[in-house]
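User: Some background: our group keeps a shared notebook of sequences we're curious about, and every so often someone picks one and asks for a predicted structure to add to the entry. Today it's my turn. The entry only has the sequence so far, pasted here. Could you supply the structure so I can complete it?
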Amino acid sequence: MRRIAISLGDPAGISYECLVKAASAFRSDRAYVLYGEEVVLRYAIERFNPSFTYERIGDASEATRPGVYLISLDRVRGVLGIRPSEAAGFVAVTYLGRVAADVLRGLFDAVVTMPISKFWAQKGGKFSFPGQTEFFAFFQRSEEFAMAFYSEPLKVVLQTAHEPLKRVPELLTREGIVGKLLLIDREWKRYFGFKPRVGVLGLNPHAGEGGQIGKEEAEVIAPAVRAAKEAGVNAEGPLVPDTAFLKEARERYDVFLAMYHDQGLIPFKMLAFEEGVNFTLGLPVPRTSPDHGTAFDIAWKGLCNPRSTREAVKLADLLAEHSRKEELVKLAKER
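Assistant: Of course. Here's the predicted structure to add to the notebook entry:
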């Protein structure tokens, strides 16, 4: 039996509502351990899915049979007036830490992280990472990792993630791009069982127009693609960014490597916002997350669309079959 951890994120956002609405994604042969505040979860169940059931436990090791379980630290006294705050950020970070510790104990085969507010996590929880991707890469001792986005119509991996646009050119290196392409090739074979066809995007308009609009394509990206192909990666590029995501191109490639955040995320969210899933390549214990934020503006109004949460749970179930938690536990003990 596989165990899946689900951190419920910021209680002032839409995570609890989305999770209880997404209960149909839970498989009957899995143990799902939720990490969040019981008083908030009960409120979400009462309002949005009264048929949702769970069993409260004190430790993840107690989830010995299929079902839905809850670990609650009881930091929230009531749900009236829940709003974005340092207290809510502290709660979200506290549960992330608990999940990370239990992952290192070898208790989980995959993790689903519901959204947090980086601002309030930093204010209230002293969260020092750019995002949950970097947080789990750090605690899983992963030096080679990448932010990836998965949906039926489009799969995208980011070369650089949460970086100011002006820094992107200086962050692009041949070695870095080759490393990401090797990671994509390796992880796609691990999780999905085949070598992917990777479309590598250019950085500049018209992919540099032969050096007239920028030299990164000729000096960095093209040499990296050639080196990756010599290493056995099925990669092509640099592709012209403004046509790379047309239907014909999407049918040619299994996944795209984008040079910066919005280059990959704008087309992805246009095509798959409701069903898209964020997942992290390179982790021994895979991690997925819905492709939306805390959405404070619609929280607790009954407006959450749970589809992305359902898909995040389903993808975690799929990736869990290829968990390498034993390697992680061994590495954690050695360090």
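Suggested note for the entry: The radius of gyration is 20 Å. The chain has a mean pLDDT of 94.
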